[in-house]
Amino acid sequence: MSTDITATGRTEQRPDGRYIVLTRTFRAPIDDVWAAVTEPDRLARWIGRWTGDPATGKVAVEMLYEGDDVEPEEYTIDTCDAPRQLELTSKGTYGEDAPVTWHLKLDLAEADGVTTLTFAQSMDDPAMAENVGPGWEYYLDRLVAAETGGDPAAVDFVDYYPAMSEHYRTA
């Protein structure tokens, strides 16, 4: 267990609702970071894989690092402005099968050879943040590891949850 991992996310009120927002930077061109968050093989290294035809406006996403009994969820592609913006919506369940709609927003910007990824997820129920926030910290750090030559498998979820829950509960 690492003790030097600090929660970086924040909550933010936007015109369309409340979001958890996290940022990661990469010494890489924007096209490379875009590929890491959209190409199936690269996505599978750190979070999961998608199947289907994005041209239809929908894909199925299977989370690969959340245990064995995770079913793929359908995501609607709301916005795809490569390589700058991707917005997705999923209608699924959370916790005790409570219905939930999540909007995911990925914004990328490049300056001086550094690409900044700003990730946001809607949080209609603020109580969910204490669980969801640490999860996204974990996955985004796996992305960083995958894209910087590290080993995503070395990123251990126990370093994130429940250690970061209080940060998100009070954010």
Automatic annotation (TrEMBL):
Q: Which InterPro entries match?
A: ASHA1/2-like_C, START-like_dom_sf
Q: What single Pfam family name could you report for this chain, choosing any that match? A: AHSA1
Q: Which residues form the Activator of Hsp90 ATPase homologue 1/2-like C-terminal domain?
A: 27-145
- CDD domains named in the record: SRPBCC_CalC_Aha1-like_6
Q: What family does the database annotate?
A: Belongs to the AHA1 family.
Q: What is this protein called?
A: SRPBCC family protein
Q: Which organism is it from?
A: Promicromonospora alba
